[in-house]
Design goal:
Blueprint lengths: L14 H4 L32 H10 L5 E3 L5 H5 L6 E5 L2 E4 L3 H4 L4 H6 L2 E4 L2 E3 L5 H17 L16 H5 L8 H12 L10 E4 L3 E4 L2 H27 L1
Parallel strand pairs: 1-5
Antiparallel strand pairs: 2-3, 3-4, 6-7
């Protein structure tokens, strides 16, 4: 006997078809969420004043954007120096079109292509790893140690220098090793030496009894023993 699919007892409408279509409410007014960025991405003029823009950026306090300009590579130095990026002050840069393109532009158009960008702080190509860490990283790391949440990441195009800034080299480490060094030095003498705390879920922990501590130690030793046996078997083969 076939089921009666047309009966309400057996037939259920899908989630999509069971939802009533949204009612049109007319055009949405977005005037209150529009942002005027003309002051931050404006053409450079002799009388331009960036102090107001910089104070506005610093007063928000939600995000800090630091720009680090990497030096030219040996291959890039072989080509004509275009002087496209120049530092105006510690927080602003000026971008100009390449010199080889100026011949194809009128004086008016060339002037319109000159732009000024303002950041929280700008680090020139001569900036060392230590100087960059002290100027851009030490305070956020200290804020983290004081109990505040901080997120730091590098962003840029390929070959912009992100890996060098973040990791550095063996002889000149970047912001990540320097941050870890600062973190570990800050907890010297403050470590909890007892082995009776066990992580629980994602953000909690359990304090173990003496019997539970012995069980955990035995479990750890058995796992390490198995690991050594596997390594020995691997070398035998």
């Amino acid at each position: 006997m076939e089921p009666m699919l047309d009966n309400e007892e057996f037939f259920r409408r899908s989630y999509v078809t069971s939802i009533e279509p949204p009612q049109r409410t007319g055009p949405v007014n977005v005037e209150d969420i529009k942002a005027d960025l003309s002051t931050e991405f404006s053409l450079v003029s002799p009388s331009s004043d960036t102090s107001q823009v910089r104070n506005s950026l610093e007063s928000k306090g939600h995000i800090q954007v630091c720009l680090r300009i990497r030096p030219f590579t040996a291959l890039e130095r072989e080509n004509e120096f275009q002087d496209c990026v120049s530092l105006e002050d510690s927080a602003s840069i000026i971008l100009k079109p390449p010199k080889n393109s100026l011949s194809r532009l009128s004086e008016k158009n060339a002037g319109q292509m000159i732009q000024k960008f303002t950041f929280s702080r700008v680090f020139g190509p001569e900036t060392t790893q230590e100087e960059f860490f002290e100027g851009a990283m030490r305070q956020p790391v200290q804020d983290f140690l004081d109990g505040y949440n901080r997120l730091i990441f590098t962003y840029g195009v390929t070959n912009a220098g992100k890996t060098y800034t973040f990791r550095g080299t063996e002889d000149d480490v970047g912001i990540l090793p320097r941050t870890m060094d600062m973190l570990f030095k800050s907890i010297q003498g403050k470590l909890y030496t007892a082995m009776d705390l066990k992580p629980h879920r994602c953000r909690d922990y359990i304090k173990l009894t003496k019997d539970q501590v012995r069980e955990e130690i035995a479990l750890k030793n058995s796992i390490l023993r198995l690991t050594k046996e596997v390594e020995n078997d691997f070398f035998l083969y």
